Amino acid sequence: MPPAQTRVDTLITNAYIVLEASGAGADAQQQALEAGREIDGGWIALDAGRVMSAGPSTQAAPLADRVIDAGGRLVTPGLVNTHHHMYQNLTRAFAPAINGTLFQWLTTLYPRWAALDEESTYLSTYVACAELLLSGCTTSSDHMYVHPTPNLIDAQITATTEIGFRFMANRGSMTRSVEDGGLPPKSVVQDEDTILADSERLISTFHDPAPGAMTRVALAPCSMFSVSESIMRATAELAEKHDVRLHTHLAEDKDEDTYALEVYGRRPVEYFEDVGWATPRSWVAHYVYGTEEENRRLAAAGVSATQCPSSNMIICGDAADAKALRSMGMSVGIGCDGSASADSANLWMETRGALLLARHRGGPAAFSAREALNMATLGSAANLGWADEIGHLRPGACADLVMWESAPLSQTGAFTDPVEAWVRSGPARAWHSFVDGKALIESGELKLAGLENILPRHRAAARTMQGLD
Fold first, then answer.
1. Which of 147, 159, 351, 450 has the most beta carbons within 10 angstroms of its beta carbon?
2. Superfamily assignment of 3-77+390-446 in CATH?
3. C-alpha–C-alpha distance, residues 254 and 289, integer Å
4. What is the predicted pLDDT for the residue at 342?
């Protein structure tokens, strides 16, 4: 049946559409237009949670129950956040911790986070997803590794399901308290049997491997300085058994090298390889301080990495060399990291940060806006093992997309390349945002019925956790 005779749920017209972000150099836009990766003045059709078709204005579009005129605005795949600690927005910009090193920051905040319960976890997750949506994010993972009470990830999934947000829950863990030579207090660590049993429970209850899934589960021991070698090995075996992803922090801070050599007699990457994690199912957060040889080994093994620009600049003083890692064949995505380090959950800002870091390191021709957008979409989707369905808008993809606000002042004078203008001439925010084909933002306003009730409850929980009430 010809497209003009079909009928779809939603049709977006009069848009500059990026179906797939790719390209570098001065002629990147022209190459993308000629290859059909971008459409200037086109339409895109959504139906039953999927992208059905897209085309230029000269091609007949299908009929639709709802038609949205984009007014020339930029439409991209929804951004994908591959590293976050959502509960940390309960201790955002906590003054006693803001000027410490990574280890000092952690030891200051661990006792505060020991007060986490199901209510505060639900509230912090709801707030984090709302904040992410405004920045153009439509899928997020979350690394929940503090478990002072049970069922915290259940509370997270309750929040993301209520919102209709695509989510990969990372069942984090810590086993080494300060009494065992680690950093966290005993109140937030768990024994290995508890961790493995709960990991099995979460996978069987919530992990959906089917196409179009809204919720998936990954396994994510926190870091080598907070878990035992045995739980790293057992978790890798469990992930293989259930075919789920693996996630952890790696080579984030120079102190990590010293710790790994003293405790394990190996550098962090060597340890990572020895415990069976150097596989294509693993993605690592930060990955700042690997050597060139280690980088090549991990890239060859299929490991991918997440760059967290703001957090690394605030705490670590350096960031992953995304361009170098990508040149080795490693998929590199973007994460905002926890809201007590980056203090913001804004994927547009992190995408811009990735562009700036690469150009600061390598010069003005080192990185383009399309490469940064590629990291935040296809690169991030690859981190999560989800690049078949998200991170692009090819027909059949999940209908997760963002129409970006054309800010009347910051975009004035930007005519020649809407993708470069988007990341250079911000700040930008979502004007319309769709997840699974459903509008969660319309005309810049969140369509979340529960948000008004959530905010005062979150404020009360945060003040209690910070010891202010």
1. 351
2. Urease, subunit C, domain 1 (2.30.40.10)
3. 7
4. 82
